[in-house]
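Sample entry was shown:

___
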Amino acid sequence: MTESSTAAPFLTEWFKILDGDEPARILDLISEDFSLSILFSTGDGNAADFAGSRAALVGYLEQREKGTRTHHLLSATTVGRDELFLGEVRRGGVPEASFVAAGRVNGEGRLQRLLIGRSSEIRFD
């Protein structure tokens, strides 16, 4: 993961772990009341929505092609407990899609909410 800022330190680390050898380690970073929605568009008119709690995140991890795609930070910010992360997904170093992630970190430093949208139809150059 290319790191040009630490304005969203939690999500920056999250994507670094997700891109690493043990992506399931992100499960150790979520709160008991964690919920998420990941809307994953491939640009062909189809999209998958992984929504729910820990089980939805496990399902998302199980279908991923480990080590194939990497997440690269374009810009980020933190406001209170909320982090916003704009990034690019690359496959073999070639840009494949843009994504935006919003996360809320609870008082214990665990991710409580996660919303991610991904599209191959728009780039933030």
Notes: The chain has one domain: 9-119.
